[in-house]
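Worked example 3 (structure in, sequence out).
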């Protein structure tokens, strides 16, 4: 009985963890980011993976963020996501579209 209950609880925790992942979609030149009470570092990791960019964030800065950014230019999307935080965004234009590299 206890084993069955433990498995049910573990399953519920696993499903709730999956549903917390931020949705990130990059279709040059627009970026979509949807997150609800998601740790900032998790959102940034999702952005890095989707955009194929290198992102770093200082340790200890991991606020929860909620956003619904739909089809915005990259600079505007990051400005909306990061608000008043200090960050830099750098990129180099290459054939076939921009190659973004950022540090936060």
């Amino acid at each position: 009985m206890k084993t069955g209950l433990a498995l049910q609880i573990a399953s519920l925790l696993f499903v709730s963890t999956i549903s917390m992942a931020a949705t990130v979609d990059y279709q040059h030149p627009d970026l979509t980011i949807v997150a609800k009470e998601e740790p900032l570092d998790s959102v940034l990791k999702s952005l890095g993976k989707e955009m194929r960019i290198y992102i770093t964030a200082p340790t200890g800065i991991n606020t929860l963020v909620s956003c619904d950014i739909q089809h915005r230019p990259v600079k505007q999307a990051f400005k909306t996501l990061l608000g008043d935080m200090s960050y830099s965004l750098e990129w180099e234009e290459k054939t076939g579209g921009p190659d973004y590299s950022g540090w936060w």
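Notes: The longest helix spans residues 2-19. The two ends are 48 Å apart (CA to CA).
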